[in-house]
Design the sequence.
């Protein structure tokens, strides 16, 4: 078991790796209201679970809101991002692991 520190992404967002293996990584993102997850893409398949808060997501050409208990999957290399409408936490899983977060 390995303990990872929280890393400030910017003034509104922090991330912390919760668990990892070469095949899978789980990461918690804590957002303050107004925080932005800038549009990006990566080769990893991503599952996102909204633990708390409210977020507006842009995934490819879709826009939708999520709240506590909502989850969805983002396919490999699909452009996505979000805006935090109400402070909270997203828990993302990546397959395979995102080595850039280590």
Sequence:
């Amino acid at each position: 078991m390995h303990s990872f520190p929280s890393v400030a992404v910017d003034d509104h967002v922090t991330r912390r790796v919760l668990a990892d293996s070469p095949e899978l990584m789980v990461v918690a993102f804590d957002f303050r209201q107004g925080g932005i997850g800038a549009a990006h893409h990566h080769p990893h398949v991503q599952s996102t679970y909204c633990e708390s808060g409210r977020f507006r997501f842009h995934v490819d050409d879709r826009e939708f809101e999520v709240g506590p208990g909502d989850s969805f999957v983002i396919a490999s290399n699909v452009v996505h991002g979000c805006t935090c409408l109400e402070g909270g936490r997203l828990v993302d899983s990546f397959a395979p692991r995102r080595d850039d977060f280590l």
Summary: The first strand starts at residue 7 and ends at 8. The radius of gyration is 13 Å. DSSP finds no helices and eight strands in the chain. The chain has a mean pLDDT of 97.
